[in-house]
Amino acid sequence: MGAATDKLTGQVQARDRFAHSHDELRTTQIAALDERFQQQKDRIKLLGHRATETGIDAAHSLDDMVPLLFPHTAYKSYPEKWLMDQQWARMNKWLGTVSAYPIQPIETDTIRDVDDWIDRLQAVGHFISCSSGTTGKSAMLIASQKDMDWSRIDTVQVFAWGSGVAPAQDRKLIGCVPVATVPKNQVIGEAQYTAFADPALPRFTYPVPPITVGTLTNMVVMRKKMADGVARPEEVAAFEATSRERQTTLDRAIGIAAAEIIANRHRKLMVSGLWSGLYAVAKAVRDQGFSAKDFNPDNCIYVGGGLKRAQLPTDYQQFVHETFNIPGNRNFQNYSMQELNSGMPKCREGGRYHVPPWIVPFVLDKDGSTRLPHEHGEIEGRAAFFDLSLDGRWGGVITGDRIALDFAPCKCGNAGPSIRDDIARYADLEGDDKIGCAGTIDAYVRGVA
Q1: 82 DSSP assignment
Q2: Model-level pTM greater than 0.85?
């Protein structure tokens, strides 16, 4: 990738990777940003357009990079009708505007649905992962084989650092959440099983049908049709029947997961899921008379995704930890997103999310157009990141999150940048979220595609 980029990404397995201060990293990071820009500006159409539009031909500073960051909405800029009408040739052309590699030709006439489209792209080396589309259009995030290989390494290193659990292949892995079946999630799951699970103990997966991009897309389409009043009676009836059946399956899965955990309570467990699912399973375990005293004292937990607007009691975290006997130093939490290729684990001593050297953090104003001046201490604003490890698409993204970034050393002793544990979405804070450059970028992408 380049000498500066390789120097930073080469620390992925270093134990002291979070120890380097912002002052130590800044010069190398700016050099790495320019390396990635020079490498990708003629490969990624949208990036080349932004460079021409802004007149930027090199990244000499963090401020130079801000106009080249993509809003997270750029990966949702395809016309929804193309997906709904299964216009796969047009969707391929749209992907070509954000991909670092030419989209290989695939046979589109016989593609059955969006899941089949994704499978066929994967067969020619394009891996499509998607953000949640349960409340709107899914972001389609293209990645390369190098990105998949990176995620396989990073996920193990992030969990081991944040939880203190060595990858010793000595645990029973139990998932308490249905996982979207996209390439990145599958790679992460396989890597964690290989590193942490006792190979003699099969991983327990939540007993519900897999969540595919097609499943999410169909759900969004029907909700939109119903809201617009254009859904046919038979479509509404089928949708409601499917929803009832899925809820019944989810309710049954809670009891099955609780039984599996109880049956393996003497083993070292690695329990994972969202807080809502973990709380429901923990309550079912408690209802059968089991609690911390019945479980191994070296259990650990992997929580991702936040509350997702679930309504839980104020003591939900304590309830889950006490049920499964999770020690305070085995509680792993991670800040990341599908748009990035790397994680930012929370430390156990300071309770802050730590930014690795190959992720360059930016704090922008609310509309995402200007970097807020920041050299020392803590500052709050819109989060943007450049993930230098990304290969299949541009590494710079403007998020929908409000964060507080600190360049001062953390209580845990690490001197690298860290993020306060009160991350919030602008859409939740203000009911809306508008990034200044999003409209012009979306218009360009649609025009080219």
Answers
A1: H
A2: yes
